[in-house]
From TrEMBL:
It comes from Elysia crispata. Belongs to the lin-52 family. One of its GO terms (cellular component) is DRM complex. This is Protein lin-52 homolog. One of its GO terms (biological process) is regulation of DNA-templated transcription.
Amino acid sequence: MASNAPSKPNESTDDDKLMSFENLDRASPELWPEKIPGVTEFEVEQKAKGKTSGTPKWLADLEKDDINLLQEFGSLTLSQLMEKVRGLQNLAYQLGLEEAREMTRGKFLNILAKPKQPR
């Protein structure tokens, strides 16, 4: 029958080899400094700002018309919203075609050419 005790007086078990008697004091900031100095203070400030301000920053920058548009989009059903997106995509495509026509027209009329330098 095998036992966990060492068979020879000088031989130790694997657990004894892994045992460490080092005492680590985790309370000291010198032993456990921040990985990036100042991050803790920054995090505390950001959490404090988030709790004190009632509206998020992105919402505070919006105008009244933008907020109304967001509320309108929020009240649409999925199919209505998809139809609205398709309409916007079609409008963007039409504007692109119109811009291409106008650029071609400007090229033929030579209005985009640089003025020639007199010699």
